[in-house]
Records
---
Amino acid sequence: MLKITEIFFSLQGETRTVGLPTIFIRLTGCPLRCQYCDTAYAFSGGKNISIDEILKTLLKYNTKYVTVTGGEPLAQKECLLLLTQLCDRGYWVSLETSGAISTVDVDPRVVKIVDIKTPASLESSKNNFENIAYLLPQDQIKFVICDRADYEWSKKIMDQFKLIEKCEVLFSPSYQQLSYADLADWILKDQLSVRFQIQLHKVIWGDVPGK
C-alpha cells in the first residue's frame, strides 16, 4: 500500500518530456519544507491505495508517460516497488525527488529528476550529495533558483561535482520569485550548458492542484 494524494492526467510541465500528456502519481508526505513549495497540500492526508489499484487506474489514460512525484515519493519505501512495476508494464517512468533521500535502489530504467536545493530554498542542508554517484546519463539534475545568489551557488555546485559530465542540468526560476528573463539572460551571458525551463503547467493553468 502507498499513501496517495492524487493521481491525475496533465501535460508534463518540466524536464525533457515537457508538453507530453503524462499521468502523475503524487505520493503523500515530505520531510522538507522548501519556502517556495507549491504542493504543501501533499504533506499530509492522502488515501492508502494498493499498487494493483494504482496500475488499474492508469489504464484509463492513453499515454506511456508516468511521473511519480510528491511530496517526496522516496519517503515511502514501497515507492521503489511501484517504480519497478511501472517499468515492467512498459511505461516511460520518471521520478521527481528532492534529493534528500538516497536514490541508490531506484530501478535503473527510471529517469531520476533530482533536485539540488539552493540556499534560498531554506533546505540546502538536506542535500544528499551521495546521490550524484548514482546518476545515469538519462537522469536530470534540477536547480530551482530564487535569486542571483542562488544562481552563483548553483554554478559552483555544477563545477564542484562536474554535473554537466554526468547528466543534463536544469535551471528553473522559482515561480513568481525570479524573472524568467533575468535567469535566461544570466545563462546566455555565462554560456552555461544547462537547460532553462519554466513550469509550463503554471503558464497554462496557474498554480492549481491537479494540473
---
Amino acid sequence: MGDVMADFRVAPGDRIIDPMIALAGCSTQHRILVAGSKSIEMMIELHRRGYVGAASTGNCGRPAGQYDIALIDWRRRTLRDLETTLDWLVKFLSPAAVLVVWVDAQKPAADQSLRASLEKRGYVIEQSTVHECGRALAARLRQTTSLKKAA
C-alpha cells in the first residue's frame, strides 16, 4: 500500500520527467539539481530511476558550481520568480551545465520573454520541446557553447 501512495505522489512530475531527462542528456553519473514546486517529488523519482546524484534546492548544499544539470519545473509560476531563482541557481552549476526549464504552454510573447531572460543571463537555447504538459527549453552558457563548436 505504501508503494502505491509513493507512486501517486510523484505521478504529476513523472509526466514531464522523461522529456526533461532527454532534453538534458542526463546520465546516472551526472549531478542534477531539481528546482520548482515539485522538486522533492522529482528528486525522489530521479533517485528511484538510478540518478543518485540528484538533489532538490532544499538539500543541495552550498553553491560551488557542483551540478552538471538543472531541471526546473516552473509551471503555474511567474517569469519574475523564475528570474530570481535563475540568479540564485547559477552559483550551483558548473560552467558546462545544462539548464532545462519546463513551463506551461504559453503565448508566443511569454515564450519570447523566457528566451530573452535566459539569453540575458548568458544562456543559449540549444533545444526545445512542446508536450501536453507544457513546453521546455534546454540551454547552456554561451562561452561553453562556443567552445564546443570550436572543438
---
Amino acid sequence: MRWAALCSAAGILWLAAACSTAPPPWEVENPIVPLPAGPLGTEIDLAALPDPPTPARVRLGRWLFYDTRLSGDDTVACATCHRPEHAFSEPTPVSTGIRGQQGARKAPTFINQAVTLYPHFFWDGRAGSLEDQALGPVANPIEMGSSHATMVETISGVSAYAPYFQEAFGSPDVTKERIAKAIADYERTRMSGNSSWDRWRYNREAGAVSETVKQGHELFNGKANCGQCHLGNNFTDSQFHNIGIGWDDAAKSFKDEGRWVATKELPADKRRETDRGAFKTPTLREITRHAPYMHDGSMKTLREVVEFYNRGGVKNPWLDPKIKPLELTDSEMDAIVAMLEALEGEGYQDTPPASFPR
C-alpha cells in the first residue's frame, strides 16, 4: 500500500513537471519548420542566398510580421496591409494605417522577392533591401505610427520573445536590425510558383492551360511586348517606368512623383528627370489576388489595365518611350488577361498565428 502511494505521488510529480515544461501555445502553433523549396518556375533556392534565412529566424519573423505591438497603438501589423489572402498585398486602392489614416499608395506584394534583378523595394525604390522595407512603415506616422526605439522597447518588454531572439541570433538582445532581419527572412519564404502557366511552360503539360492562355502568352511577349518590363520568371525588371498614372495635364504635374521622391535630393549624376512619375514594375505573380491595380489602386480590373496599355498610357513629358499604343483587338486583350490569370500559383499561402509570445 505504501509503495502504491509512493508511486502515485511520484506520478503526480512527474505529471506536474511535464506540464510545467510543456511548450506555450504560441510555440506549438508556430513550430520551427525547414526552409521551403522554391515552387516550379521560381528558380529560387533560399539556402543558396549569400545570407540565407534560418528556420529559427523565419519563425521569429512570422510572429513579428503579424504582431500589432510593433505599431504605435497596438492596432497595425505588417500584415494589416500585406494580407496573406491577397498574396501579401491588399484589396483596397491605398493602405490604411493607425487611427484610420490613409496613405497615397497601395501596399505592393513582396512574394518572390528573395531574389531580385536590382535591390529596389517600395514603389519608388527608396529601400535597398527587404530589411529596410520592413523598418520603413514602423516609423511612418500614418502607417504604423511608432519609432524604431519604441518598437525595440516594446518587444524587449515581452519576456517570452527573449528565448526566440536567443535561438535566432545567439543572444536575447532585441534590436531594430534583428527585428527587420527576422521579418525579412519570413518574407523571403513567401514564394509563388507551380501555376498552370508554369506547368505548361516548364513541365511541358500541354493541357495545363487553354489555347486562349497560350495565345495570351504569345501576345504578351510579341505584339504587346509586355515582357520588355515584366520580364523573367518573376515578371518584373525591378526598374522604374513612367506610364502616366496620376498626370494632371492642366497642372502639368503628377499627383505622386514616384521615383523622383526618392532621387530628387541625390547628386545630379544619380538622379534623372525621367524619374518623375515613374514607379517600380510590379510582379505579375498572383496578380488576380489584389485588385485594384497600379500604385494608387486607380484601376479596378485586369482588363482595364490592359486597355490602358493598349491606348499607350497617358502622355506626359516623361512618358517612358517603351509605352506606345498596341493596337490589340478585344479578343487579344482577353487572351492577355487569361494569361495573367494563369499565374495563380502556390507556395506563398499562410494564415496569421493564433497567439503570440507574452
---
Amino acid sequence: MSRAIKPDRLPALVYAVVVYLLFLAVLGYAVGFFGGFGVPKGIDQGPRTVVPAAAAIDLLLLSLFAVQHTVMARPWFKHRWTRFMPAPAERTTFVLTATLVLALLFWLWRPIGGTVWNLSGPGAGALWAVYAAGWALAISSTFLISHFDLFGLRQAWLYARRIRYSPPPFTERGLYRRIRHPLMAGFVVIFWSAPTMTAGHLLFAVAATGYILVGIAFEEHDLTQSLGGTYGAYRARVPALIPRLSLRRRSLGVQRSQ
C-alpha cells in the first residue's frame, strides 16, 4: 500500500501543523509572561483593577482553562466529539482550544499588587535557574512519551498517509521512572520560581497548582480504566510529582561493626 500523502487528506495535516506553530508561539509567550520579561504584558504588568474585581477576573480565566482541559481530555467527551469531526483532528482541536484559552488568559489577566517576597543577588539568580530548569523538565518530558502525538501531529500525519492510528504504548523511561507526571511537576516549578512573588502571581501559583492536583486525579482515573493493573502497579511504585530519595544503606553487619 502506498504511504504517500493523499491530497484529499492534506488539509488535516496542514491544520495540525498550523495549530502546532500557534501553540509554540503562545508557549514562547508563556515563558516571558510568567518570568515578566520579553513580552508586552507579563503576569505583573497590565491595566490595574480594584483587587476584588481583579481576583474575580483572574479566577474566572483560570477556571475557564481548567474546565476546557478537564472536559475535553475525558474519554466520554472524545467519544462524543468525534461524532462531529474526524478522529485524527480531535487532538489538534483540543490543542487549538487550549492554546486560545491560554492566550485569552494572558490578554485579560489583571495584575494584583503586594509583594509576598522579593529576592535579589544570588537568591534571585538561583530562582531564575530553577525557573529555566522547570521549563526544561516540562518540555523534555513530552519527548519521553510522544511529543508529536501529544500535540496532534502524529495523528494527522498517519491519517494523511492512510495508516491506521494506534496510541503510543505505555512506557516507563527516563524521568517517568522517578515521577509519574514530570510535565506537571515542571509547571509547578515554573509557577513558583519567581524572584519577586506578587499577590497576583501567588494567586495564579496556588490556583494552578490546585488544578494540577485535581487534573492528575482525573487523568489517573482514566489511565487506570484503560491500562488496569499495569498502571496500578506503576502508580504504587512511582510517586506522582516528587521523586523519592534513594539512599544506599550499609549492610546491618557493617553498621554493627562501627
